[in-house]
Design a protein that fits this description.
The protein is an alpha/beta fold and about 425 residues long. The protein is built from twelve helices and ten strands.
Length: about 425
């Protein structure tokens, strides 16, 4: 028994080693044939049972049907269990599916199939990571758009408040001018009263002074009260002395000086056009064209009121002078706070090859509503006609509202030699 058992074990080891060699060297086509043969082998268990029954009938004529069933019962049970286990693992569908995949991807071994699956898993993980990054990017972009929209709305609201304050300021300035006129008139009347003889002081009691509101009050003692701004001046009856008149005069003059000091601040020129062109001296004049000088860039904007302006085309003369460039950049940033749209167009680029253009461009376009016209060409000299100016602008913009306004203005404008009132240094 021991020899027979050892021989069986050695035979099984040889078979196992042989199967390992077959697995490593077997092609996909051969493996598919093996699976088909194994399926047929399991399906042929019933046939083996029938053949065994016939052989038993031939060898043992005296063997009954019940005895044959008893002999074949273990074989029948083994065949049934083998078939059930084979069906539990899906029969030959799973091996054939794997073999089909290997054939489609030209894989010859299990090792190659394992490597292909690993690569597919890595690729799927990479795609998932990219999708996650894209999702985060979309979220950030949405938040950015939302914040930009809120910022634009707040800027629009602040611009409206600034324009409202500007209108109130103009009304206040007009009120100050009326007060100055009233104060001047009162001062003249007080001087006339001072020069009158004592016998004529009765007439001073009837003086009527025009004020801004036109209010004039009379007390129970028939004293006149004249209002200048927040100041009340009483002109009394004949009993008032010259000292009282002098004191009232001094108070009125001091008050007038203080109010006049507020009104003597430089007045800004109100720009009535909503679309304008700002440029250095370009040779063409018009009501929508405003010229600046490099020597007065610091104070140029303070001379104008931009409340009515909505869009600006800014012709900039780029140079190698760093100080001038900084002043031009500051002017653009200040204008960006006043208007909704600014388009910067290089007019004469003295430093186009120096690389500074890109630096200025990146620094200026960070302002709100500022656009830069990417054009390498610039004007070589001043424009002689409106048509030359418009050709220059239309070649560097597309459907710009300022250029359209200048086109309409050029139809009615006449050539002028003198500089118009909107040109300032």
């Amino acid at each position: 028994m021991s020899d027979r058992t050892s021989s069986k074990q050695s035979t099984s080891k040889v078979d196992d080693n042989r199967m390992i060699v077959v697995k490593t060297q077997m092609s996909v086509k051969e493996r598919r044939k093996k699976v088909k043969k194994f399926t047929k082998l399991i399906a042929g268990g019933v046939k083996v049972e029938d053949e065994t029954r016939l052989q038993l009938g031939k060898l043992t004529a005296k063997c009954s049907e019940q005895e044959a069933d008893a002999i074949l019962e273990p074989m029948r049970i083994f065949h049934r269990e083998l078939l059930e286990k084979f069906e539990e693992i899906g029969g030959d569908e799973w091996p054939r599916s794997v073999i089909r995949v290997m054939r489609e991807f030209k894989l010859e071994s299990v090792e190659e199939l394992r490597e292909a699956c690993a690569k597919a898993a890595e690729s799927e993980e990479a795609e998932w990571s990219v999708g996650k990054v894209n999702l985060e990017l979309q979220k950030v972009q949405y938040e950015k758009n939302l914040l930009t929209e809120c910022w634009n709305e707040e800027k629009e609201m602040l611009g409206e408040q600034i324009r409202k304050i500007q209108r109130e300021k103009e009304v206040a300035e007009a009120q100050v001018r009326k007060l100055e006129k009233a104060l001047t008139k009162l001062r003249k009347k007080l001087e006339q009263e001072e020069r009158k003889p004592n016998g004529l002081r009765d007439e001073a009691q009837e003086i009527a002074v025009e004020t801004v509101t036109g209010d004039e009050k009379t007390s129970s003692e028939e004293k006149k009260v004249f209002t200048i701004g927040n100041l009340g001046i009483r002109v009394g009856n004949m009993d008032h002395t010259k000292k009282t008149v002098e004191k009232s005069k001094e108070i009125a003059v001091d008050t007038g000086r203080e109010e006049k000091k507020e009104g003597m601040k430089p007045k800004k020129t109100v720009i009535r056009e909503s679309k304008i062109l700002i440029a250095p001296r370009i040779g063409v004049k018009g009501k929508s064209i405003f010229e600046y000088r490099k020597t007065a860039l610091d104070t140029w904007k303070n001379r104008f009121d931009f409340a009515n302006v909505e869009a600006i085309v800014f012709l900039v003369n780029l140079t190698e002078d760093e100080e001038t460039n900084q002043k031009l950049g500051a002017l653009v940033l200040e204008l960006a706070e006043e208007v909704k749209e600014i388009t910067i167009i290089p007019y004469q680029m003295d430093c186009a090859k120096s690389g500074l253009v890109e630096i200025w461009k990146r620094s200026w376009i960070t302002a709100g509503h500022v656009k830069w016209s990417d054009s390498a060409a610039s004007a070589d000299e001043k424009f002689k006609t409106w048509e030359q100016l418009l050709e220059f602008l239309e070649a560097r913009t597309t459907e710009n509202v300022v250029v359209a306004q200048l086109r309409k203005e050029s139809v009615t404008s006449e050539p002028r030699i003198k500089e118009n009132k909107w040109s300032h240094q």
